[in-house]
Specification:
The chain is an alpha+beta fold. The protein contains 9 helices and 31 strands. About 25% of the residues lie in helices and about 35% in strands. The chain starts with a helix and ends with a strand.
Amino acid sequence: MRKISFLLTTGLFIIICAAVIWQWSAYQENNDQPAESKGDISLIVTVKVDQNELQVKQTFDNLDMNQKYHAVIPSQAIEVNCTDAEGNTCEEGHKPKGGKMHFDYKIKSGPGLSMLLNDWMIVLKDTAIKKTRIELVDQFYRRGTWSAGLPLKGYKQTELLHYYVFEGANSTPSLYWQEKPLFKLTGQKGIDYYTTQKEQVIYKFDSLEPFSDNHLSVVIIDGQRTVRGNGLLLTGNELTDKEFEQELASAFLSSKFGADEEAEGWLLEALASLVTKQEPENEKSRAMVEELVKTLTPEEINAFITYFSKQGHLDGNSLDRSLSSIKGMESDFFSMNKQKGVGLFPLLFTDARSVIVNGDVKEELAVVIKGDQVLFPLVPTMDALGYKTKLGTEFTTLEISSESNTYYFNVKNKTFIHEGQTFGLLENPFQNLNGDWYLEKHWLNAIFKVQISENEEAITLGS
């Protein structure tokens, strides 16, 4: 009996060791990661693949038990059930007991040669996820290959199932399956390729080096078609090298915009073209790139690219904050250009210094920087200096007058009359920016004899 017991114990020990060794080999890359700190929310997703559906369970862990969370349910999710760590049913604005929320639901999936799932996961509104882990068990589509918008950390195949583990920082990664088997090839840092050919040529693009801390799964398909997911790109094998490079840059950037802040095509093309140094095809994208290139120095362009390539989330406001930090002045370039139904707004910066007129600080005077020009808002500035401004029809004429002086401008002919004399102007001193009229600093002194002095804190105007 002792011999039998010893053999059983030894056999069980061997089985346990084998399991532990496989687990270690599959996930050893994660063991060097620091433990989660308080407030770092993690997400574990298990997916069981059946013939006509995916059975999904999402667990949000390390939640704040004093905060209410609102779940955004994808349209394709059915039979959704939510419980907390104590098994209580979730309600809208639910405070999770035990710091966890579990969601169980199903996604219908029919037969076919491939399947791409975008926006298939439940999201907690206004919640940042530190780490996402997907464990997928496929008992049905065993002939094909799964990939996701996350790095593949582990894979095991048996006669009965395929088991995948994906893990990374993407909180809403896309999921893709195709019947024809794929080989995983590692490209430059940050990019994994999935291809039907083991000898697939893998390119390295120096322009994409700033994205090395990000992740993109690229599935090579036939033809010239491209389909963009979140952290995942399906791209045709007939694209030129430059087209391929541009698509990769666009895919990296696309994943940085949340579902509620999805970037329009022209914005993605503009940012990607800055990265690849290719000329955009879209007219608005091209105009935007030209504005950035002519206003920023090459060093500032590189700093801007480094910023948006390293950030986990982007929107118009964060892009503007980046420009502001680079130049040391405020800008709303991207926020203004995201407005629909309008043309391109120029790249302007607002001087942070105070404006002092005849000893008084004028908070309403926001001085604008356009390239190397310093522009004062026309009407408020002249009003502060004691002048009244009358705009003529379609701004063809302009009268600026005080108690002792009157200036009558013919804007079209670039002339003005003062004290009965006509003076010619080399250029139009007035500019219309986003519907408001401005006067360049040089002309304040040249025409109106305004004395201007500047330091790091203020711009001072005096009669």
